[in-house]
Amino acid sequence: MPFRPRYTGLIERYRDRLPVSADTKIISLGEGNTPLLKLNNIPKHIGKNVEIYVKYEGLNPTGSFKDRGMTMAVTKAVEAGSKAIICASTGNTSAAAAAYAARAGITAFVLIPDGKIALGKLAQAMMHDAVVIQIKGNFDEGMQLVKDVAEHAPVTIVNSINPYRLQGQKTAAFEIVEELGRAPDYHCLPVGNAGNITAHWIGYSEYASKCGDHVTDACALCHGECKFTKDAVISSRPKMVGYQAAGSAPFMRGEMVDNPETVATAIRIGHPQSWDMAWKVKEESEGWFDECDDDTILAAQKLLAEKEGIFCEPASATSLAGAIRDIQSGKIPEGSVVVCTLTGHGLKDPDIAIKQSSSPLITVDANLDAVRDAILGNLAK
Length: 381
Ligand SMILES: *Cc1c(COP(=O)(O)O)cnc(C)c1O
Hints:
Elements: H1 10-13, E1 36-38, H2 42-46, E2 51-56, H3 66-79, E3 84-88, H4 92-104, E4 107-113, H5 119-127, E5 131-135, H6 139-149, E6 156-157, H7 163-169, H8 171-180, E7 186-190, H9 195-207, H10 216-221, E8 239-245, H11 250-253, H12 275-285, E9 288-292, H13 294-308, H14 314-329, E10 337-342, H15 350-356, H16 368-376
Parallel strand pairs: 2-10, 3-4, 3-6, 4-5, 7-8, 7-10, 8-9
Antiparallel strand pairs: 1-2
Helix pairs in contact: 3-4, 3-7, 4-5, 7-9, 8-9, 9-12, 13-14
The chain binds pyridoxal-5'-phosphate.
C-alpha cells in the first residue's frame, strides 16, 4: 500500500504562511481540508448555467469553520503561556473553544445568550467541560462583557477580534484556490461578525500577493504577520458577497442593530466586530452585501439537503439562499464560478430541521403487508 502522510491540520499544512515558528507547539484536531463540492442538481433546478461549489465547513472537527481560527488562537495562547481562554458565542465559537482548550489542557470560559443557541452547540461546550456562562442578554452584550472582563482576569479572548483567528480562517481561501486552480468569480458567505469574510479576503489577497494599498487594515489586524511577500499564486480575486439575515442585518441598515432576531442563530449579531474591515472587503473586491429573510434561508437549507444531500445549519444556508437569488436575477451572470461557504453542520440544530421537514414520518404495524403498502404508496414521491 502506498504511504500517504497523515493529515495533521491546517497549521502544519500552511506553516510557511502562518505566524508560527519551528518551536511552536501546535494544538490541532485535524481541522481544515474540507470538501469543495460541486452542486449537480441545483443549477439545473434553477435553470441557470453556473458552476456552484459549496465549501463544506461543517465537516471540521467540531462542525464549523470556527475550528480553523481556533487552532491558531489556542496554539498562540498556549505559546504565550495562557492557562485560560474566553469567548462570547452564538454557539459555534464556544464549541470550538471548548474542544481546543480540552486538547490543550487549559480552561475555556464561554458566554452564551440564554436560550438562544442551538442544542448541539451547547452539548459540545458542556461535553468538553467548558465553564458555560449563560447571560440574560444577546451575543453583542456578551461580547462587550468578554472585552471588559479580559482586562480584569488572566484570560485570552478567542473571538475573531483575536488576530490569530482570521489568520487560521484565511486558509479556507487557499484550499479553494488549490482545488479550482484559480480563484472563483464570486465568493458568497453568511455574515455575522464579518470575521470570516475578512479572513477569506486576506487569504485570497495573500495568494494574489496584494498588500499595503489593498488590505492595510487586515495587515494591521494580523500585526504584520501576513506573508504577502511571496509570489502571486492567482492573478485575480473574487468579488466577495456577504449575506445577512433580514432581522439581523447591520450592513444593510448601515448602522448597528440593537435587537437582532433570526432563526439563523449563528448570525444573530447586531454589532459586528469586523465592521470596518468588512466594508473595506466589499469595496476592494467590488462585491456587495444583501439580506435574506428567515423563510428564504430555511428554504435554501432544505433545497440543499433534498437536492444535493448536503446538510448545513440555517446560518450557513444564507450564503446559498442569497447566491441563488442573485444568480436568478442575473446579478451573478451565467458562466460564473461561484463558491458558497457552508459555515456549519446541519446536525448542530436538529430542532429547526425537524420543525420544517416535510418528509412524512410513517408509523405502521410491524408486518410485511403494512411495510410493503407504505413503500408502494410512496414510490412516486
Ligand atoms: C460564526 C458563524 C457565522 C458568521 O461568521 P462571522 O465571521 O461572524 O461573520 C456564520 N455561520 C456559522 C455557522 C457560524 O458559526
